Amino acid sequence: MTLRVGLIQTRTPATHAAALAHVAPLVREAAAQGATFILTPEGTNILQRHRETLLPQLTLLGDDPVVNGLRALAAELGVWLDIGSALVRREDGKAANRQVLVNPAGEIAATYDKLHMFDVRLPTGETAHESATYEPGDQAVVAEAAGAKLGLTICYDMRFPAVYRALALAGATVMTIPAAFTRPTGEAHWEVLLRARAIETGSFVLAAAQGGFHEDGRGTWGHSMVVAPWGEVIARLDHDEPGVLMADLDLAQADKARAAIPVLVNARAFTGP
């Protein structure tokens, strides 16, 4: 089976209304090019790194205007639309970084809350402390969409290989990694980490990214890409501008890669050190 996918690269603004106006035409473009599964980046609904400005704008998932707008668009276009993440308020009042998978009827088919918080101090002096704003999830998620089994992850999750092994063992053959990668870490690590996650699990990796310099002052790497189960990059955007990246996935390649190098079944338990 071949699955035609569209990855959306955005430079999401700092308000919901502007974010929806920014991403919707790109989703339409992907659908017009034949995509039946479309993935958007992390922070599709709003990007604002200043907590005091961001938190008052967050709503419950069901009330988010970008999520609801994209649900209606998915139903209009008749496509699977994976909102790479929406920054939303949980029922308990805390914030969540949540991936939202929408089916062609516009219904929410699955959600996933980002497991790993980006709490770092980079050599450049740049710092991030996501756990000060967001409550991490505690559940890995596999979901079926467009004839494929997806492993849902977000950005910093890609640095934790155990998550991808667990998703692959649960049947996922396509890993979604929507991201808002920093420019220093993107230049150094983006491609090598994405290819490693594909190779070690024999899976396709779909990495839709934020790119460029945003209203809140942050810079993101862009360079969205699709990696095949053998580790080759089969589609990429070589820039950080908003755009659409298309790829055709031969889903049988996952089985072939896993049969050739069966690391998922060859792993052994060990003790120590």
Arrangement of strands in the largest sheet: 5-4-3-2-1-16
* CATH architecture label: 4-Layer Sandwich
Count of helices?
7
Number of separate structural domains:
1
Main structural class: alpha/beta
Number of E-type strands? 16
What is the terminal separation in angstroms? 44 Å
Give the percentage of residues in beta strands: 25-35%
Helix content: 25-40%
The gyration radius over C-alpha positions equals 17 Å
CATH topology: Nitrilase/N-carbamoyl-D-aminoacid amidohydrolase
Shape: globular
In CATH, the homologous superfamily goes by the name Carbon-nitrogen hydrolase
What is the CATH class?
Alpha Beta
Uncertain stretches: none
Largest sheet: 6 strands, mixed
Query: What does the average pLDDT come to?
Result: 96
Order of helices and strands: EHEHHEEEEEEEHEHEEEEEEHH
